[in-house]
Write a structure and sequence with these properties.
alpha+beta; seven-stranded mixed beta sheet; five-stranded antiparallel beta sheet; globular; disordered C terminus
Length: 293
Amino acid sequence: MGQAWKCSGLRWAAEGPVLVWDGGRVSPLSWGKRVAFGVVEGGVRTCVGARGHPCPVRAGVPGRSTGVRCEECARLDRAHSVAADTIADDPRTYRVYLAWFGPGMVKVGITAQERGPARLLEQGAVCFSWLGTGPLMASRRTEELLRAALGVADRIPYAAKRAVRSALPPTGEERAAEIAELHARAVALGGWPESLAREPFQAVDHVRAFGLGGVPPAVGEVAELVAGGVVSGELLAAAGPDLHLGTDAFGGGTVVLDTRLMRGWELVPVADNQVSVPVREFKGAGHLQDGLF
């Protein structure tokens, strides 16, 4: 058995997606590269801790959890979080955005200006446009305004995002149409905070960055990793935390791996060309059975 590694997750760099490992090692990913790893036999998935500190009791966490934290560490992690609204005095400048993930899937959100588009890449936004720039609380109020006045969601489940990636409109103009219309309605609303500067509509499309053009429809998604299980496939695309892997399993179909499921496990390199972990079939892939293994 080779040296075991623990994955810290998928990061989006200027050059593309990168797998990050505990200790700082990184594995740049490129289309056509083989992604192959096994979970250590007899291994147990453990909590990743909170805010840079290890879990004091190395608590076990479920294989299907994407949060990868025990209850106590999850509470500590959210105790100082913009996303959880536990910070009100952050002095940084924020930007409000509209993001589109597929037909009928638009959300409003905020991100620190210094992060640029990283947050949108991390979420798997197929296209987006900035809406305004200003202080944190003004950005939050604008987010709430759009939710209340226009019914814009602030969260889109990852399962819903994955389900529509194989049926995206073919042109950037078509993909941007929904957020273009919503942007116009949003800037026309009254009640905007005075400290938030409105930004003109300018669509940024991520289909090329994600490698989604021409990728075969996925037949399913990895439901969880298990001790002794193997995942192996050719990287065809990546979006947010997801890797789209072309496999020899399931009739040569594409399987989606949420890299958050890799965290907390000890992983080793493998030469096997298989997928031997539970895979959840996507609705409509009628040639497959429930509970693929």
